Amino acid sequence: MAFEDIPGQDDTARRLRATLQRDRLPHAFLFVGSTGTGRAAMARELAQVVLCEGKDRPDDCCGRCDSCLLFARGAHPDYGEVGLPEGRQSLPIKTIRRVQRSAALKPVRAARRVFVIRDVERMSIEAANCFLKTLEEPPGRCFFVLIASSLRRLPETIVSRCRVVRFANLALEVLQRRLEADGVQPDDARWLARRAWGSPGLADGLKEADLHAFNRELVERLRELSVDDNFTLSDWFSRKATENAVSAAESRDALQELLECVAAYYRDLALSAAGGTDPAEPFNGAPEDGITEPAAGVPPDAFVERAELVLEAIERIGGNAQRRLALDDLFTQLGWLSRGAT
Ligand SMILES: [Zn+2]
User: Fold this and answer.
1) How confident is the model over 205-223, as pLDDT tens digits?
2) Which CATH architecture best describes the domain 209-338?
3) Ligand 1 centre distance from Cα of residue 139 (Å)
4) What pTM value is reported for the model?
5) Cα(71) to centroid of ligand 1, in Å?
């Protein structure tokens, strides 16, 4: 395996190689990107290169030395990796303390000890404060790779002490092909890749929720939307959102995801009314997804206004507003606005 084997991350691979060639490794990297973009695989590859004892060049491991063999068996004494424990919502302080204790020890065989910490955005506040001390005064011969899905959820004090490396989402065709290789039907794969903006983790989640099938039915219903539909639609959305959710937070996230489909529908109509030259193709652009021709003479702004109403509702629901009330409001307003158009 080499850095370049991780699909869609050629820029990151180049940057890491340049850092290794110049021998300018920071104390800590922070790999940021969505789930499935190869952050952990890249971190492990980097760890193996750093620990390798037989390399011919500074940016590749040999794959044959004792260190490489130990690493491949998951038994290298100078390597540690932690992440969110099974079934937990946050990375507990005791996990971080374990890393710190280990980081304070001298390396057993390599020049330094290497730690990969996944799910860093899920660190509890205590854990983050505790880990900050390690980043402020890193123990001599240690190297950390932190992995997070977004910088927004991390304390600035942690981010500022790491060298940030961003992992791009995949090109839509690359993700589409990957989904097809996993057995997803081509038209589903195309829609999912677009809807997830190339994020493999998000696409997997949407696939589980069978969101494409939901979207098809949604488009049918929105096309015929009238004021009288408001409560029927609210019912339908509430039911769908709670169907597979095991907690209130999960059903809230699911509801927001479903409403994103409504926003995307109006966004597509706005694009279509405006002549549709946006480089991001409409989600509902495939014939089987039934993009509608907007009623003649309806200006793009009319659809933008509806998309904005949906985004407001999504925000209200995120802010813990009464969900049912937010849904009833939204569909009543959309119903009124849709009279005689689309
Ligand atoms: Zn080696």
Assistant:
1) 888 878 888 998 998 888 8
2) Up-down Bundle (1.20)
3) 24
4) 0.74
5) 9
